[in-house]
Prior knowledge:
binds P-hydroxybenzoic acid; 389 residues
Amino acid sequence: MRTQVAIVGAGPAGLLLGQLLHKSGIDNVILERQTADYVLGRIRAGIIEQGTMALLDTACVGARLHQEGLAHDGTQICVGGTRHRIDFRALTGKNVVVYGQTEITRDLMDARRATQRTTIYEATDVSVHDWSSERPCVRFRQHGKEHEIFCDFVAGCDGYHGVCRQSVPPEAIREFERVYPFGWLGLLSDTPPVSEELIYIHHARGFSLCSMRSTTRSRYYLQCSLAEHAEEWPDARFWSELRLRLDVAANDRLVTGPSLEKSIAPLRSFVAEPMRFGRLFLAGDAAHIVPPTGAKGLNLAASDVNYLWLALVEYYQDKSVSGLDDYSARALARVWKAERFSWWMTNLLHVFPDSSGFDRKVQLAELDYLLNSQAAAAALAENYVGLPF
Ligand code: RFL
Ligand code: PHB
């Protein structure tokens, strides 16, 4: 098989890149290890920045997002049982939209099907070769048979555990990492959200987040220890722990119900540099991870894809390699700002098991400053709604 761009991974990064390249007349093949249903079953991001939305529109997959997404002009921060509002619209002129990653993935899969370009699910033993040459190759197995794809470029959109980054020799890559000493236990339920806006809760028992997917579907998170397992959290235990962390008004509005999904995600900050190795390019979680506190992971995947797509169009249309040469530096400049913001939000809101009395006092002073200074609130708002692509 021969194509222009071989894309490894059919998560949001791979599918969006495939769609944008298709719209620009650039042939591409997507390889995915899992089935489409498995990819759709993962419950992840919920907050979409305007830049991501604009890119989805460019890819002609934004229609349902505009219809069904919930525009949020602000967010709530609860400290010591009192809620404060950060007004994104007033502070930045922008907002964010609540629309699940699952729905974006579904929209992208539908669009992909209509293009009739090749997508191979359940591709096993994927391996990438010869990316330092003019003729890279991707090998894989499907239904026990071995296949090869020859291409001009490989896009590694295969997430944190993917094969592309791991194929690079260790001396060619630098990794930066911070692992946090806690996780998030998430629960999805068909119950109305406790608030029209998300509530980020600072609490002595641990951080908590009230989020949503729609006006009838809620998503809640509890900070938990890494030693815990989701099975140790029957729904009743989850709801009663959440109640202990909610303010009075939220408790009054809380509607509980059976969970549709419950899982624990560890929190990590990670960046691999550079994001380009000859004709192999990394994008999205394959190159970097942020803790979910800043709601940035999916949005960063979208901004990487934007730069990579533009660079590939420049290459094929203008025969210029300058976009490709700049890709890594351009993407990383934005990545590190989102890493900083996500790290900062995580430090601001969580209980750290090894924190000193001094650390806790400084955290409270930082919260007090944030909630009483317009400049500090504007800095949060500007980052939350998304820095320009
Ligand atoms: P994905 O989604 O991990 O997709 C990678 C795909 O590659 C496949 N793959 C392979 N395919 C072929 N061969 C191999 N060897 C392969 N190895 C892996 C995988 O099966 C998969 O389908 O990465 P991508 O596309 O870069 O997208 C990144 C986002 O998924 C991620 O950053 C976000 O979900 C992060 N995130 C959030 N981001 C936001 O912008 N806003 C949020 O509100 C938000 N909330 C979250 C989040 C992530 C969370 N978890 C569980 C980590 C909340 C949570 C709880
Ligand atoms: C979510 O709805 O899953 C969500 C929202 C905001 C975050 C993280 C996760 O910061």
